[in-house]
Specification:
- InterPro entries: HisE, PRib-ATP_PPHydrolase-like.
- Its main location: cytoplasm.
- Pfam families: PRA-PH.
- It is found in: Cytoplasm.
- This is Phosphoribosyl-ATP pyrophosphatase.
- The protein is an all-alpha fold.
- About 70% of the residues lie in helices and about 0% in strands.
- The protein is built from six helices and no strands.
- The N and C termini lie far apart (about 35 Å).
- The site of phosphoribosyl ATP has 10 residues, from helix 1, helix 2 and helix 4.
């Protein structure tokens, strides 16, 4: 995994209540203290903001706007994974497992309902 993601995941993990995260001093600790619904709400907001940024960029806005919103979405996704005891490395492993498997072929090979 990229060391950037590793470092971010480690900092996020350190913000859990069980690891002494302080909601008064840390945004991530505050999210963990609020729980599932607050984290899921942020995912929804950041996903929508990413969609809107892409539309804005298509309409002529600076492409950095899309980078900024995607970073927010990735960051909050890593908080979500941590909340459920999962890591970015596990997502990268899943992507690696899929490498070279065409999405069209994979879908066609699924058992029919
Ligand atoms: N990468 C990030 C990161 N990206 C975005 N954010 C915060 O995510 C929050 C939500 O962004 P919004 O634009 O939606 O702001 P908002 O509307 O004020 O947010 P809400 O109060 O409604 O949640 C803002 O407070 C951002 O600062 C981040 N906060 C922290 N990190 C990383 O997490 C580490 C730990 O952060 P703390 O736990 O705060 O020390 C930091 O060192 C960074 O590496």
């Amino acid at each position: 995994m990229s060391t950037q993601l590793e470092r971010l995941a480690a900092v996020i993990e350190s913000r859990k209540p069980a690891n002494g995260g302080d909601p008064a001093a840390s945004y991530v600790a505050k999210l963990f203290a609020k729980g599932d619904d607050a984290i899921l709400k942020k995912i929804g907001e950041e996903a929508v903001e990413t969609v809107m940024a892409a539309k804005d960029v298509r309409a002529g806005a600076d492409p950095s706007k899309l980078l900024y919103e995607t970073a927010d979405l990735w960051f909050h996704s890593i908080v979500l994974l941590a909340q459920f005891g999962l890591t970015p490395q596990q997502v990268l492993d899943e992507l690696a497992r899929r490498e070279g498997i065409s999405g069209i072929e994979e879908k066609a090979a699924r058992p029919q309902d």
